[in-house]
């Protein structure tokens, strides 16, 4: 059983240039800077998160991702990361294009809305699922796009994006064999490593 | 006037003067054979001399950044809100050095000083100095104070340009750089504003081609006008609107050229007050230093190429309503630093005050500055141990 951060950590090569979009308090970036000696930057707009990053010495830039990423040159990073945030942006499809323009590879994690509990919640209660993992009501959620493990795979196919590898974990962000065998049904978080 | 010195003030401070007799070759080709710099220090330099912070001032700033010169002072130093015990630039942790730049009019050698070669005041003949010259002279002051490496160099606006220059001119002499509301070079519009300011001074009949002291005159109209123009560019449209709106002096229009709107009165007052404390030649020199600054010109316009020399960590801060040096201008520096692979963090602070915001104790601004510098201070202690 490994956590999502451990999985990502295994996939990241040392000494590369990393851009972490919506890096939050910089947990992953901090880990990668310390253990993989990456040249890393985070983008964030949350004031507390920005301060936490500065406090920890993680390079962080205040930039609203929905306003564009044109300031980053083509292929200027080895890896562009986005953990648990893709569902919060206006156009995830265009954002993925941008990520693959800036980075040679990308790692994206997102909550899988195809998880059996979400399906059951909607099927039985007839209302949008609210869980510990997605603890928002439909009207106040920052998550404005809901999609499943399969939806993401399909988008990659349509866009001719290569899936280098994937992983799937539960709500505790651990992986299990049964999640791996039916990720669309059992994963709460999907992790994709993609490139052009 | 403070009845008692506030607990978070550096208290009563006394400026000191450093004399330099090693000639300083200036960017313009001239050489200053000797000069002096006036400066103040706050806090205590540790025995490793590793906890010094240099404050670089902007267009009309000086060496009096914090504290009071006397109990009768009406106001503390220009950045007292940020410098003091427990403040964002914490004098319990750091030894803070603030100076008046060369060409200034507050005690450092400048147009109002005596030229030793002639025994007369320099006035118009004082050579034009640049950001590079200032940084060179600041490094000599650091030598004199026994500071090999600054823990941080901090500056806003034109001060931020000096910090940027430090990072590439003396990369090993600073651990961190804090650049607030600044730009990697002036825009065409910035230069245009500066030219109007200079012309308003030069066209004042009391200017006497810059030799007004010799002619027992002061170009108050020109300098006042330049300051009025400058002041408009320091404030945001919103800030001016909120402060004055269309508030009127009288109940009804007077249909003449006297003061109708309060904003007119405010600008006239600001212009006039400025002429009492500032020298017109210095003002012109400062605007030229701004115009000439363009470190990327050394590398064919490639800012990230010149910044690749830097070794320090950077903190950039901009303010949302600043249109003189807008957030986009700070972001040019940020993007170039990211491209060069440098350690940089950037905060864009919501503020209504326009460019002037860099002088205000805006809570989030102060918190970001303090968070960054606390880490700088903590690393000093771990390095010593």
UniProtKB/TrEMBL annotation, chain A:
<dbReference type="InterPro" id="IPR029063">
    <property type="entry name" value="SAM-dependent_MTases_sf"/>
</dbReference>
<protein>
    <submittedName>
        <fullName>Methionine biosynthesis protein MetW</fullName>
    </submittedName>
</protein>
<dbReference type="InterPro" id="IPR010743">
    <property type="entry name" value="Methionine_synth_MetW"/>
</dbReference>
<dbReference type="Pfam" id="PF07021">
    <property type="entry name" value="MetW"/>
</dbReference>
From TrEMBL, chain B:
<keyword id="KW-0963">Cytoplasm</keyword>
<feature type="binding site">
    <location>
        <position position="227"/>
    </location>
    <ligand>
        <name>substrate</name>
    </ligand>
</feature>
<dbReference type="InterPro" id="IPR008220">
    <property type="entry name" value="HAT_MetX-like"/>
</dbReference>
<dbReference type="Pfam" id="PF00561">
    <property type="entry name" value="Abhydrolase_1"/>
</dbReference>
<comment type="function">
    <text>Transfers a succinyl group from succinyl-CoA to L-homoserine, forming succinyl-L-homoserine.</text>
</comment>
<dbReference type="InterPro" id="IPR029058">
    <property type="entry name" value="AB_hydrolase_fold"/>
</dbReference>
<dbReference type="GO" id="GO:0009086">
    <property type="term" value="P:methionine biosynthetic process"/>
</dbReference>
<dbReference type="GO" id="GO:0008899">
    <property type="term" value="F:homoserine O-succinyltransferase activity"/>
</dbReference>
<feature type="site" description="Important for acyl-CoA specificity">
    <location>
        <position position="324"/>
    </location>
</feature>
<comment type="similarity">
    <text>Belongs to the AB hydrolase superfamily. MetX family.</text>
</comment>
<dbReference type="GO" id="GO:0009092">
    <property type="term" value="P:homoserine metabolic process"/>
</dbReference>
<feature type="domain" description="AB hydrolase-1">
    <location>
        <begin position="51"/>
        <end position="359"/>
    </location>
</feature>
<dbReference type="InterPro" id="IPR000073">
    <property type="entry name" value="AB_hydrolase_1"/>
</dbReference>
<feature type="active site" description="Nucleophile">
    <location>
        <position position="157"/>
    </location>
</feature>
<dbReference type="GO" id="GO:0005737">
    <property type="term" value="C:cytoplasm"/>
</dbReference>
<comment type="pathway">
    <text>Amino-acid biosynthesis; L-methionine biosynthesis via de novo pathway; O-succinyl-L-homoserine from L-homoserine: step 1/1.</text>
</comment>
<feature type="active site">
    <location>
        <position position="355"/>
    </location>
</feature>
<dbReference type="GO" id="GO:0004414">
    <property type="term" value="F:homoserine O-acetyltransferase activity"/>
</dbReference>
<keyword id="KW-0028">Amino-acid biosynthesis</keyword>
<keyword id="KW-0808">Transferase</keyword>
<keyword id="KW-0012">Acyltransferase</keyword>
<feature type="active site">
    <location>
        <position position="322"/>
    </location>
</feature>
